[in-house]
Structures are given as structure tokens and as C-alpha cells.
Amino acid sequence: MTIRPYESSDLPALYAINQQSVPGVGNEDSAEGLARWIDISTCLVAIDKGDEPLGFITLIAPGTLAYESQNLRWFEAWLEDRNTSLIYVDRIALAETARGQNIGEQLYNAAFAAFSGTDQIGCEVNTAPDNPGSHHFHKRLGFKQVGTRQYDEGRKGVAYYVRSI
What we know:
alpha+beta, Aminopeptidase, globular, 7-stranded mixed beta sheet, about 160 residues
């Protein structure tokens, strides 16, 4: 398994992986919808020996207004009174067949290396609907919860996590 930057030929596979990972990640209506977020992010892709994508992580800098995310806006507000820099995890997703093989951890390690000049990395994990596996995974990697938010009249909720890089 290797991790490399995104290539446009990855898009069909990444879209399929993304859709397999809903509701843990945002649902996209089309591959082009996912490409819109990839194009404004740093996207790292885990591949197998045949160059087939196994999973990916997208990271977006605060202040990227083209990214219309309430969760990124939350982190921007959280950063206002702190003397720290942060890179935001838009999504991390693995193919169903690649889960349980430490590929998510390896994607995060690649993100830590790519953003070693940044103080922290931040993400959110669903609380409604709850994603207990993701909470456990992020805590195991050293992420600490720094906030929560409910929206869509309580039908959706997230916990915000950060970790020093």
C-alpha cells in the first residue's frame, strides 16, 4: 500500500468509496460534486500495488470560502481566539474491502507529514447519526474533543476534534 497525491483518474473510484462511506462522510450527488471539494483541497490517496484506490483523505485550510461547510466555519470561529494554525479534515473514506487494515491511520500519518508546519489538525465526527467507530478511531490517534454542535433541528450532530501535529 502506498499513499500519493490525488490524480484525476482516481475520481470514479474515490466517488464510489465516498458513497460506500455515507453517512460517515457527506453524500455527493455525482462524481463532479466530489471533484469540486477535491479541487480545493489537498487530497491524499491510498492505493494498492495495482494503483487502485483503497481510500482517501481531503484536507482544507480555514478561510477557504469556496468550501461551504458549517463545520469548517465552526473551526474558523474556534481559531479566532487561539494562537494556533489548523488544517481541517473534510473527509476520510475507505473502500469497504480496505477497512480494518490500518489504512485510515496511514492516511492520517501522511496528512501529519504533509502538514508538519501546521500546529493542529481538526475534524468532526457524527454524533447524530452516531459514528462510534470513528470516535474511537480518532481518540486512539490522539484527537481530543473540543466542541459539539447540533443542527437540522437535532437530526444531525457532530463532535469536533483536534490533535497536535
